[in-house]
Structures are given as C-alpha cells and as structure tokens.
Amino acid sequence: MDFENYQSPYSWRYGSKPMRRIWSEHNKRLIWRKLWVALAEAQAEFGLVNDEQISDLKAQAGNIDIRRALEIEAEIHHDLMAEIKTFAEQCPIGGRILHLGATSMDIVDNTDALRVKQSIRVIQIILTKLLVELLTLVEKYADTPIIALTHIQPAEPSTLGYRFAVYAQDLLTDWEYLASLDAVYKGKGFKGAVGTAAAYTDLIGLDNFELFERLLSRKIGLEFFPIATQTYTRKQDYHLLHILASIGSTLYKFAFDLRILQSPPFGEWSEPFKEKQVGSSAMPFKRNPINAEKINSLGRMLAQMPRIAWDNAAHSLFERTLDDSANRRSLLPEAFLITDEMLTVTHKLIKGLVINSHALSANLQTYAPFAATEKILMLAVKRGGDRQELHELIREHSMVAWQEIQEGAGNPLSRRLMEDQKILSYLSSEEIQQMLDLQAHTGIAAERAKQISKEKKRLIEWLAQ
Question: What is the sign of the dihedral through the CA atoms of 393, 397, 398 and 403?
Fold first, then answer.
C-alpha cells in the first residue's frame, strides 16, 4: 500500500478481506467484463456476434489492466469507456462488438447488484455465526438472575439469558429482513439509455426482447427489474441500507450496554483483554472497552447512510441524473464494510465475553429487595390496609435503605420491612421473606429465553447448507 497518500481505513483497517475483494476495483472490472461477454453471447443467439469474437473476449476477460485503463480515462474522463477501450485493445477480433446496444449503466448497475448480493451472503454468514454464539449464551444463562436496569437505574430482577435474548430477537428479525431482501434484489437488466431498450430492439426486434433479457438473466445469475430508467430504482439502495443500519442498531445497543456494564460501579461484564494489550498510553492500569467503542463509532456512520440513499432515490430526476454517482462509489462498499466490521467485532466480543458472577450476585442482592415492595404493598392493601398510608411507609423505608447503600453499607430494606409493626399487622415476616425471594420475580424470563434459544438449531442447519 502507498502510505504516502491518503488511504481509506476501510481499505486495510476495517472490514474483512472477502468483503474488500468484492468491492475492489479489480473485481468490479472482472464483473464488467463478465457482463460484456454475457451480452455478446446473448447477441450471438440472434446472429449479431460470432463464435470467434466470443472466444476472443473470453480469452482476455480475466486480463485486467487497470494501469492502462487509467491512462485512457485521464484522456477521455469516462471510467467505463476507458475499460471498454482497454478490453478492446486486448481483443482484436471480439473488441469491435463490445458493448453493442448498451449504455454504461447496463453494466455498472448490474455489477453493483451482483456485488450487493455477494456482500449480503458474506453478511448473512457472519450474522448467523454471531447469532449461534449469542443464543448459546441465552441458553446458558437463561436461569441466572440479575437486577434489570431501566433508565440505567436498578429496577426489578430478570435473568441474564433474557437480557441476551433481547439482542438475539432483534438480530433474528434483522436476519429475516436480510434474507428477504436477498431473494428479491434485482439488477437493471439491459434496457439501454432511458430504460426503453430501444437500441436492443432495433438490433434483435421487439418481439425477441423478452427472450433476450431472460437469456442474460440466466447467464449472469441475476433477476432484472421489469421497468427501469437509465438505472435500476435507487429505492432499492434505500431498502438495503435500512436493513444494514437496522443490524447496526442492534449491535450498537449491545456494545453500549457492554460499555456501561464494564464500568466499575456495575462490573458485571467486560471485554476480553489480551495479555499484552495496552489500555492507555498514559494510565497503565486502564482496561478500556475499545472494541465496544469501535462498534458504537462505526454504528454512528452506518446510521446516517440510509439518509444519503433516500436523497439518491428522491433526487433521481426523470430518467437519470448523475448526482448519486460519486457518493455511491463509497456509500455501498463502506456500508457493507462497516456492517462487516461491526458484526465481526461483536462476534469476537460475544465469544470472549467475561461475565463477573460475583458482581451479578452482589448487585442483585443489593437492589432486588426494592423490587419486592410493590408485591408487599399490593398484598397488604388486599388484606385491608390503606394503600396511600402503606405506600408512604414503604417509600420512607426505601429512601433510608437507598441512602445507606450510597454510603457503602448493605441494603437494610428487607430487615426494616420485616420489623415494621404496621406492615406486620397485615403480613407475616415469613410472607415478606417469601416475597423477597429473588427467583419469584423473574416471571417469564427463563422460559422465554430457553424458547428463543431453540432457534440455534435452524441457524446451524442454514450454515451447513
């Protein structure tokens, strides 16, 4: 790499090698040539191209010469036309019929659609592997009680598996959306300058066009929109980026939760920390959640991308404007590379996630008694107590208990409730103790966590296909 000039971090720091290869300049030009060969083969069915020309094109289809193409582009200022000229120079027999009847976007848009479908497959595989690991945690910790948090404040007990199940449920929804999109993702087809296919029908006849496009669809392995302008509808990009951003939002939430739970006041989860990893250049003791922070940082970028795609769709005036072209060169690849990186890092975090069972238990013991107060209040009122009087009494006990916790003492709430004579006039100390039982307050959490964890089998079967 040339580090004397600007390099995008997505070229070497973020994203996987398979994803970078899909969006590489080399792969793009390989697909361009694949489409030109397919176009020539389809036209041969109608007597427009001969076997010798096709053989010549096929022989040179993999001979990518980007340096030569850029030399030509510097003169003519058209990247696709420069590649046509480069390919034609290499093909003295077949070069003369290259791009016959086509417009640039017949090649560019179908290439983008093919690369998107390749990228969706990469994302599906990483997402599925992540979900398998996550559902393993759901199952493992389905019965493990924790203190749940609302407003980043202690609330009522839940289970750790149920908390993991929240992320899993959202990611399973994202998985289904992605699979649905892949099934319907289409290319422009070969419809020429404004989408009417006039040039092609002049060459092969109007009655033959349906067969012509079906031949091309089969050859390149891509369904086509029945209607297009000079491009496929840019609304398709908008739908794609919404789904990628949706995946990103789930990963973002997980990472943000992890960052909070890794902080010492909670201390329940933490990132895996390697033996020689440095947390801070100034503070040797630091164990910063750098991977979770990276997920959140990249997620903010991904969240903005659907808006750009919306503008591209809404501003695509009449049959074509070029004001989407420059941003799409980075929009599509970077959206996939960001999603790829976020999924890969999240997968690593989930596989190596450190669960501090002592902190889980300590936080639960400290804060769970507060959750029992509502049940105590309800039963005491049911037995004849004054709801407002008892509410104020329990509130006062709770506020004292909260203050003692802030001062570093244990939670005295259970003791105070079981010693209060007013409360004891309605409930026995044994009943109060029973309602303070942590397991009695997790409701459906364990059952539902175990239920969703069964999705793991389906995902493993999908990976094996």
Answer: positive
pTM (two decimals):
0.91
Of the residues 8, 180, 263, 280, which is catalytic? Answer: 280
Tens of pLDDT, residues 56-81: 999 999 999 999 999 999 999 999 99
pLDDT at 18: 97
8 A C-beta contact, residue 174 and residue 124: no
Read off the pLDDT of residues 442-454 as tens digits, 9 standing for 90 and up.
Answer: 889 999 999 999 9
pLDDT in tens, 297-326: 999 999 999 999 999 999 999 999 999 999
User: 198, 205, 218: which is closest to 103 by C-alpha?
Assistant: 198
Is the pLDDT at 411 greater than 90? The verdict is no
What pLDDT, on a 0 to 100 scale, did the predictor assign at position 275? 52
Residue 31 has pLDDT above 90, yes or no: yes
Cα separation, 395 vs 393, in Å, equals 5
Share of the chain above pLDDT 70, in %: 96
- Cβ neighbors of 347 (< 8 A, separation 6 or more) are 126, 129, 130, 133
For residue 334, with 0-12 CB atoms within 10 Å meaning exposed, 13-18 middle and 19 or more buried, which class applies? buried
280 is catalytic: yes
